[in-house]
Give the backbone structure.
Amino acid sequence: MTDHPRHPKKHRARVLLSSVFGPYAQDDSYGSRRINPMELYHNQVTRYQGAFSLRMFHRSFGLMLIQSNIDAPCTLLDFPSLDRFIEELRKNRYDVVGISGIIPNIGKVVKMCALVRAHLPNAAIVIGGHVTNKENIHRLVDADHIVKGEGVAWFRRYLGRDPRAPVRHPMTYSGFGSRVMGMTLKDKPGDTAAILIPSVGCPVGCNFCSTSALFGGKGHFIDFYKTGDALFEIMCGIEERLKVNAFFIIDENFLLHRKRALRLLELMQINGKSWSLYLFSSARVLQSYTMEQLIGLGVSWIWMGLEGKQSQYAKLKKVDPHALVRRLQSHGIRVLGSSILGLEDHRPEEMPRIIEEAVSYGTDFHQFMLYTPNAGTPLYAQHKAAGSLLDESEFSPADAHGQYRFNYRHPHIPAGMEEQFLQQAFERDLAVNGPSIVRLVRTQLTGWLKYRRHPDRRIRRRFQQEAKSLGTTYAGAIWAIRRRYDQDSPMAGKMDALLKDLYNAFGLKARLCAPVAGRFLTITMGREERRLANGWTYEPKTHYEKTPAAMAMESTNVQTLKPIASKTANNTCKARAA
Ligand code: SF4
């Protein structure tokens, strides 16, 4: 690749990587939107669940992966404010500034590039992430390099290193700032899953899928760890370093790589690993595994597309998704179903039936998103060819995040009506299935009852680990939530039955803990409800991390900002793929 750009300072170049600036959950001229907060669950899954909503942030894993795999002095600034970003530029002489964002953040990326030019005129600007798929991005942002797709190999080449060197995995937890029922949970080792990134992209290539499109689309993906052996070694390293026994796998369709998954299962069995895996999977792939294999792999939480029986998507062909969801839950596997509203054939008069069908899955969580053509996807190309995309003068890219309105003229749904359908879907799901935390406890209890006496100690131990709070904190949560449903007899009946089952399963401990923890949670929930009524929003804290090379360089300069040693540094040898 002789035409690949190279930085003249190679691996001695000082690099700053930054996500776009916040605050995020507010309406502003840079593209932040109150209804599009930096919280995955509250943004698009539990947003209508009030104080029951699961609130949590996730780091910018792509930037962390790049930082872990370049040996140039590198600083990562995640979730800065605008002032904090400016301060970083003013106080340091970076040679390269990398900025990552999604398309609705284009206004922020434009602003950040202008700031880099003003404060560090000699720095090269590199733009990555989904925003790179935006049409005419070269003309919109003043950047030197627009990098589509995988960034590790690109940066390594750019800095004069071998792009094919083994990938070092970042050592980090999957989420931070978790909050539910007015309680911010402590990010304690052992309680939070670690992040695991085996591959990126998905070869299934659904027409709307931005992630698949970003990494090459249909038929393409990039493996960071090709074999079960390599993955197992990485997981052992993460387990030891972060003291975790659960992994949140950031891989669009982890089980699709069957040979790797089954070898991982074999190694987990040989080495007695009772890990829990949280993963994304398409229904058809999931169905190709036996329940013994899924349980053996520790699959305990699945995010799965449920686009509807009549949808065109191959991932649902020859699958009875209702039966599949019920079967998974009956084995203690929590399911997050994802449904799309506004597919080509959806008509206003059919939306109540479509919503009812989605709600009837009774998943533990349910995501609803609008069918949205994002630049780079086949769906976008199709709308562009048809001339049905809305011009940006009519519809801001900041609003095309899938939780508000269509960015195109829908063939059947009049503009503006989709917003009501989204709201109806979330509200109906809550009304019929109750708060997600209640469903989750039900599924977990079902799994524990089924497997607590399993002959394989490895399996038993995993279910015991996962059930450790069922008879205490979770029993208290159900006790508190039950009191909110005094006026809703069907839901109150379901919660009474769940509480009774928890008391039967965990005995006196649960009977004593439930009212004590429940009264406390009633108070925290009440406070949360008042905060929400007063317009409170939740923002991630800023993370600032330097590699050892950056810290070494720092020690020779005046530095007023205290660096935080990166958890991603030095993740070598044991955690490296063979
Ligand atoms: S199966 Fe899921 S991850 Fe794969 S392309 Fe389709 S939507 Fe994307």
Summary: Residues 489-533 form the longest helix (45 residues). The chain has three domains: 10-48+59-168, 188-448, 449-531. The two ends are 25 Å apart (CA to CA). The longest strand covers residues 334-341.
